[in-house]
Amino acid sequence: MDFTNPLVYGVPCFIAFILLELTYSKTHGDDDLYHWKDLFASGFMGVGSAILGPLFKVIFMVFLFEYTYELFNPVVGGVRTHILGYESFGYAWYVWIFCMLADDFTYYCFHRANHEIRILWAAHIVHHSSDNFNLGTAVRNGWFTILYKPLFYMWMPALGFPPEMVIVCLGIEALWQFQLHSVYVPKLGFLETFLNTHTMHQVHHAQNVEYLDKNHGGILNVFDRMFGTYKALDESIDVKYGVIHAPNSYNPVV
Fold first, then answer.
1. Confidence bin at 190 (pLDDT 50/70/90)
2. Which residues are paired to 195 by β-bridges?
3. What is the C-alpha separation between 26 and 37, in angstroms, rounded?
């Protein structure tokens, strides 16, 4: 069964919402929300990701996930059929829910690893290097992350989730992550008990000591709560975004 990656439609929306937020900020006195050099750097990294992403996704995601899916059934003695008792999870509606939950858990592990393993942080720090927190920052992604990100998700097709389903769930996760990068959305009340929200992601991007390495979740915050990395935004604290040892340049390739 073929599915279209949601990011195919998401990229034009990213551009539109960045321009909308930029216009709103400039016309409502929030001149410090966007700095032109910083936005250019974010845009350059985003364009690079948009160019390199599809190429590496075909090589590392589609091929790798498909290979892993087939490897465990039937190549390696039909692991799923003969040991686990099924060939594939299929495409039922409830499988999509479980796949999305599995994706969200894997994203948490992947994202937390990016912050705690130095060689991975070297790739991920690009995303955190901006002193601004806006939708432009959302597309400020390192180009090397795609080389190792699929490795975290290989267990899903191996277990029986169809590869294209995993890729669609990854796309949905990316769409949610994009819209989190906005200061214009307040706390969301009851939804804050289980969703990863905009204020929680502000905490994640802060360099304040009390906020460091918090809120790694994707769509849900339940894994942060379970594993001790959850931190709510304290509105009495002035948030300072970026990294402690920030690069002294707006050059996106430095």
1. very high
2. 220
3. 15
> Residue 103: beta bridge partners?
none
175: in domain: yes
CA 34 to chain centre: 21
In a 3-state reduction of DSSP, which class is residue 236? Answer: coil
Tell me whether residue 115 is in a domain: yes
Please list the residues that pair with 220 across neighbouring strands.
Answer: 195
- Helix 163-179 × helix 93-116 angle, to 10°: 60
Mean pLDDT value across the chain:
85
Handedness of CA 197, 199, 200, 204 (dihedral sign): positive
How many independent structural domains does the chain possess? 1
Contacts (Cβ under 8 Å, ≥6 apart) of 51:
none
What is the separation, in whole angstroms, between the first and last Cα of the chain? 42
3-state class of 220 per DSSP? strand
SS3 content of the chain, % helix, strand, coil (to 5): 60, 0, 35
Residue environment code for 42-63, b if the CB has 16+ CB neighbours within 10 A, otherwise e: bbbbbebbeeebeebbeebbee
Mean pLDDT, residues 19-35: 86
Which domain, by its residues, includes 159? Answer: 7-184
Distance (Å) of CA 105 to CA 115, 153, 170, 226: 16, 10, 12, 11
pLDDT value at residue 230: 97
Q: Is residue 51 part of a domain?
A: yes
d(CA 83, CA 148): 29
pTM of the predicted protein model: 0.89
User: Do the domain assignments include residue 205?
Assistant: no
